[in-house]
Amino acid sequence: MKGEVRLDHNNTNSYIGVAYLPYIKGLSDNLAKILMRAYIKIIFLPLNKLENMFISVKDHLEPLQYKGVYKIMCECGTCYIGEIGRSIHERVKEHYANLQYNRIIKFALAKHVDKTKHHILMDKIEILARCDKFQEQRIVKAI
To answer: Distance (Å, rounded) from C-alpha 133 to C-alpha 112?
Structure first.
């Protein structure tokens, strides 16, 4: 046929690129002809996948609701790394209480604040790892 470009579809060297496009009846076929003339291979993908049609039934938790290893920074640049088998949020509330009531005997974070009079950046808590098992928490904290 006049003006038609014939490519060897088995020879991938005859293409200069590959385009992944959703298949839309009527549009995709015309677009494929144009791109094939430019030596671009077309691979059509389904517009809707079965997995995208279902709503996730999992509840999405806030990051601080997980168990794991976390880091709290001080204004001086030092950091406290803690691990907890309960939610990190619950442990952060305990840190607040320890600081508020000056419980410095057993708690390193409160002891640091009492000794240096620094401010702890409690609004910038970083979750280093989410771990359900105690042994995993120990390993992550050690790293």
So the answer is: 29
